[in-house]
Predict the 3D structure of the following.
Amino acid sequence: MPDIERLLAEMTLAEKIGQLNMLAAGFTVTGPVLAGDITGGVREGRIGSVLNVFGVKAVHRLQLMAVEGTRLGIPLLFGFDVVHGQRTIFPVPLAEAAAMDPVLWERTAREAAMEAARDGVALTFAPMIDVSRDPRWGRIVEGPGEDPTVASLFAEAKVRGFQGRDLASPSAVGATAKHFVAYGAPAAGRDYASVDVSERTLHEVYLPPFEAAVKAGVVAVMPAFHDLAGEPMTAHGDLLDRWLRVRTGFDGVVISDYHAVAELIDHGVAADVAEAAALALKAGVDIDMMGYAYEAGLPKALDRGLVDMADVDRAVRRVLALKQRLGLFDAPYGRGTAALDEDHAAGVRALAREAARRSVVLLDNAAGVLPFPDTVRRIALVGPLGDAPYDMLGSWSAAGDGAEAVSILNGLRAAMPGSQVRFAAGVPIDGNDEAGIAAAIDLCRQADAVVLAIGEGANMSGEAASRSSLDLPGRQRALAEAVLDLGKPTVAVICAGRPLAVDWLVGRAGATLAAWFLGSEAGNAIADILTGAASPSGRLPLSWPRNLGQVPIFFAERTGGRPDDPADRFTSKYLDVPNTPLFPFGHGLTYGDVTIAGVDVERTEITADEAFDIVVDLRNEGRVAAEETVFLFARDLVASVARPAMDLKSIARCALAPGESGTVVFSLPARDLSFPGRDLRPVLEPGEFELMVGPSADRKRLIPTRVRVLGDRRSANG
Ligand code: GLC
């Protein structure tokens, strides 16, 4: 393990800047500029880290050049976007968030880390923890949905899973919390566009998941591309340094997003590359990913006095410390040697299938079409996503191979060996071609039941993939309506990276599933749900809008002075649709019939250092086992600032056999009712609160209890 100060003292300026330079080379393209052959730069010590290279042969070849071929032998850091799996692909994050289970989230990250480390990767550019309430934004698929509490639990679980107990272990990878911050609220839902959110919303919604990631020990943070109220995040010293490092205590490395340092010129805040490099370095960006800005701009910036050597040394020190924590100095070839055993291979596919099953959200089953009864022997599978294994991986599928993914067609055939499952796409995923609808309808006529596999291609969400519409692409609606006109038992399986505007579909189809992009085991998981081999348990991690006009839509809105009242014209509502979403946050049906039998708050008055205990009795009146999720919301009824109508405070899950009763207990410390006060620092204001327990954010299904935190509200703010 080197003495970093001694090493730093030996380094030339070129070698120091080399450690701040991360270039992409290899097997995937994730940005607008490409590096080409980087071996020269590695040999000359001008490159300190590499992204988009994986596979132990390629990684160790470059590592050998750095360790054996450069003057100081400083090892390279290899980074890659292992967002929801490396080779075995798990559900996209928005889907996995629907499982509402931090234990599962950590397990899948752990397996992904093992596969990534075996491929020589030492740092993943994940978890992506950008809260978003705008499904036009393509990257909503990559994050954990609309709620900061879910996003914070997701952040903690993923950081723990990726980093494990020993960062230097050959089966651990460093995690990167991204994209800092409020990237999920771009103007017009368009990727990379400016963000204008209030300081309050920043502290109530977008910052908490990053604080959670830091508390979990995340080793890297990636600023987002956008400007926040005119200040590009890549040069946002107030948030990158004073909030992230000073106030929250982050002690890792800040890695710019792809080419983002150079793009400070395009933002119009830097006249040239020297100014761009200086702004980013001064703000606290340690590594310049694919910007070539530190390499080209820092020498000039030093000459012009825009930065000084202490600024450079501070960044280099952090990078060397990260490499040390990852064990790269002691074992530069450590990752890639620990071969994964056969148990892992079998186990990881089983975990992928479990995670996929638990990510499926049964939105509607009013006609009781699901699970398919034994009498269903002939299935017509129609729609462009019925036999689309590559699309099942979703965006950011790392080293995943679509050829190894299970399509819905193959999953159904494997699950129903005695049945006939016939497929017709009907229409392409996009475009105006309707020629195949007739053949698809013929297939449906001969079937006992129809599975309608519709939605988006994997490339219609993710980075640079915002949409101005939430409608089904192409002529899929024409196909769906032709199928629905037959009156056959029909299940709509929606595979997409965002909620789609399907209010015309729900209710006409016998059942509707949100199947997102479920990864390598998608087809098997969907078949498990359709056949009843597993009961659906997923719950929406975001509000599902009736139409685009409702966006942004989320449950934690402040009520305003004229909250929606259908009986009163002068209240906040639309003329054409209700304010409520098509399906609320937390919505998700099971095959059981679980009800909340009672809610008991043992003590309704507590002091600021105590906790409320909320006991929830549940009962499964159905004939099928169910995994129920219960949510605890709170509202601060009178506070120094207007507070959301409901804030999610906690989630609990309970498995119930048919006819079984069960109990979940929430313990809610009064401190958890704190919020950013007028100075945006956490404050707990004593007074009355409403606690609400229910199966989703649907106000009609919540059971309220009034409680009080003792003390003088007005004195709390000092
Ligand atoms: C991309 C993405 C970021 C990713 C990086 C490296 O532009 O914004 O999420 O980690 O580049 O691929």
About this structure: The mean pLDDT is 97. Residues 30-31, 51, 81, 125, 178, 257-258, 463 surround alpha-D-glucopyranose (CB under 6 Å). The chain has 19 helices and 26 strands.
